[in-house]
Design goal:
Blueprint: E1 7-14, H1 28-31, H2 33-37, H3 41-48, H4 53-74, E2 83-85, E3 91-93, E4 102-109, E5 112-119, E6 133-140, H5 145-155, H6 157-162, H7 172-179, H8 184-187, H9 192-217, E7 229-232, E8 254-255, E9 259-262, E10 265-266, E11 271-277, E12 281-288, H10 293-297, E13 305-306, H11 309-318
Parallel strand pairs: 1-13
Antiparallel strand pairs: 1-5, 2-3, 4-5, 6-12, 7-9, 8-11, 9-10, 11-12
Helix pairs in contact: 3-4, 4-11
EC number: 2.7.8.7
GO cellular component, one term: cytosol
Organism: Xylaria multiplex
């Protein structure tokens, strides 16, 4: 039986301006010593192995978020938030009875780290949430803008799509190449640059939708069935203005209804929400409860909130005393 106390948790951490004096990854050992001290030795080692400091910052925030969500929502002291891997290699937290009171997923791109979690699902089993599938993705449409535009100008849009077609569904590449032009939003565009930007936004929309969905299933992006997953007639959410998400956002910045096909059948058990974050980012959350599909379909996937590393560290240190 599902709990009426289910919490859907969505947070973002912006690492782009953190620790400005850290110009190389090894500098984090002094500049970010407090947050690093809240990681296990293995986690610290993995963070400090990154060549680019920007990647190391995102990895650090990702590890912190996972411990934070377990500690805060399960009432567990920081050093008791021991994470292990499930059969697909995803990190999970199990309590002393083997239950998963909170399930979570993280994603990072272009300096931002996103966390989605569900807490307290199965009231009949002490809030065990292990039967919830959950996935998140975040994309930045302009992170590689100069490269993407150059490739499109040089080789053309169809070739750009074909370069990535092996990770899309069987008809999705064709839709990107020829179907977008039929959308009213595309028809209203005036310049070739606007049309290129719209196509790229649609491309990254599809990427974001697929990654969140695949992560929700618990399988890797190299799953054999990737070609059998198809998002039909999708369009990108309208770019936002403010670098934030709120319940008052323009409805056209948020897309909740999707035509998803898997192995020829319509997917009717996944709650998927993709929404803009400012003009350049998009987040996508995907959740499902396979044994009672109506449960997840009824959850509101609202806006992400920003959380600071200082807030995470303060919580970690206060529960470590």
């Amino acid at each position: 039986m599902a709990s009426s106390e289910v919490e859907v948790i969505q947070y973002l951490v912006d690492t782009r301006r953190l620790w400005p004096a850290a110009t190389k990854t090894s500098d984090l050992e002094t500049e970010a010593s407090r947050p690093l001290s809240l990681l296990t030795q293995d986690e610290r080692t993995r963070v400090l192995k990154y060549y680019f400091v920007a990647d190391a910052k995102m990895a650090l925030a990702s590890h912190l978020l996972k411990h934070w969500v377990v500690s805060k929502y399960c009432g567990v002291p920081w050093w008791e938030t021991k994470l292990s891997a499930d059969t697909n290699g995803k990190p999970v937290f199990r309590d002393s009875a083997g239950r998963q009171p909170v399930v979570f997923n993280v994603s990072h791109q272009a300096g931002l780290v996103a966390l989605v979690a569900v807490h307290g699902y199965d009231a009949a089993n002490a809030g065990d949430s292990s039967k919830v599938g959950i996935g998140v993705d975040i994309v930045c449409v302009n992170e590689r803008q100069q490269r993407d535009h150059r490739m499109i100008r040089t080789d053309g849009w169809p070739k750009f799509v074909d370069m990535h077609a092996d990770v899309f569904g069987r008809s999705e590449a064709a839709y990107l190449k020829t179907g977008l032009v039929a959308l009213p939003a595309y028809a209203a565009l005036q310049t070739e640059e606007e049309r290129r930007d719209y196509k790229l936004r649609a491309f990254y929309t599809l990427w974001c939708l697929r990654e969140a969905y695949v992560k929700m299933t618990g399988e890797a992006l190299l799953a054999e069935w990737l070609g059998d997953l198809i998002f039909r007639s999708f369009e990108p959410p309208r770019p936002g203005v403010a670098f934030a998400q709120s319940k008052d956002d323009d409805p056209k910045q948020i897309i909740r209804k999707h035509d998803v096909i898997f192995k020829g059948g319509k997917v009717d058990d996944a709650n998927i929400c993709i929404r803009s974050l400012g003009p350049d980012y998009m987040t996508c959350t995907a959740v499902r409860t396979p044994e009672r599909k109506g449960d997840a379909l009824g959850w509101e996937l609202g806006p992400f909130e920003f959380l600071t590393v200082d807030e995470i560290v303060a919580h970690g240190e206060s529960t470590s005393a």
